[in-house]
Design brief:
By secondary structure, this protein is an alpha+beta fold. The chain has helices at residues 6-21, 51-85, 93-104, 106-109, 114-134, 141-157, 160-177, 182-257, 262-292, 308-317, 335-355, 395-405, and strands at residues 35-37, 48-50, 321-327, 360-367, 371-378, 409-414, 420-427. It contains twelve helices and seven strands. Strand 4 (360-367) and strand 5 (371-378) form a beta hairpin.
Amino acid sequence: MFGVPEFAVRLARPFAEALATGEADPAPSPSGWGSVQVPRSPRLLGRRLDVLTAFEAVVACLVFLVTFNSLAATQNGLTPYWERTGIGPPWSDLTFALVALAGSAPLVLRRRWPLGAWRVALAGIAMSGWVNKSLFQMYDVLVIGVYLLCLYTLAARCQRRITVAAWSASVIGTFVIHPISLPIAVLVLTPIALLGYNVRVRRSAQVRLAEQRRATEEARAAGAVLEERARIARELHDVVAHHMSVIAIQAEATPLSARDDPEKLKAGLAEIRTMSLEALTEMRRVLGVLRDGDGTGDTAPQPGLDRIAELVETARGAGLDVTARVSGPEREVPPGVGLSAYRIVQESLSNAMRHAPGSRVLVHVLHGRGHLRLRVENGPPAAEPAPPAPGTGHGLVGMRERAAMLGGSVTAGPRADGGFVVTATLPLQEGE
């Protein structure tokens, strides 16, 4: 026994979906203008009365009455002819009622069940055409109008293959019922189907665009979170690296320098305690952003240029020979620039403590025209550097990121005598 050719199966599948098994897309969300809130609606109507649905129900009732009365009146007018020829009326009122119902009910069904409404409308237009042909009439305009509306809804809510199958079924049905009307049917059915398909394509594009916008917003929010985490990580690195380096150096040097002097030992331990408290305070300030989300709980001002002198004194206490110098006419510095300058000097001094203990360091702050220039330069170490601690090595990266965020730059490199120099240029206004 021969099997069904594959091309025949592919050709028949869209017709099967259109006539029996296919499903339509979900109804688009209402825009709100076509619905009216009902404060106390009956349970049968639910909590919301859709104006368009109610209007279509009224129009469906009118179509039913007009179609039924038209068919009945036409048959009554032809009754004398049938009596003279001996042929009785071929249709009953029940038949007319079924034709009118099949031609009007799709108006109520099309928005919720577009495919089911089209199937009922297809049966209704076929019945109407057959009955009107026996009554010597060509068309029922109302039933045709309902069918075209259902075909448009199907094309706007179903896949392209189902739309093509529904259009083809309409053309074939027109040819079977009234072949002379085939050209007119093609001219009418084709624009309706194309219009519905175009609406579906545009609606799908809008849905995809909304999804892309939502994905973009989510990615932007995730990027903002990552950027904030990176900023907090830089702050923590600067705080921990600087203060812990000073504390470690002080803890190692104090017992040696105050071996026979209890007062000096007591002063050194007090300084270590002060540095520890300062480190805890700054860490609380940074971590407060994580607790408060927007940092509103932190009212302490961020460090700036006015606190560089504290960094210099701390570095001197750790054994560095630090000289600070400020050049140029001092002017107001934006908070972001001041914070970045403070962190860059802080990280540079921390690196000098770790890699060049006891060296001579020059901190130069230059107020230029439209920019702030920093130069932290240390000589060769006067003592053996301590072995690098785990997790170090990210300070220069953090400094460059801070400067780049402001539109500036950082250069760093060794000197010929074994020292190291860090130079940073920070614009005072964005874009300079």
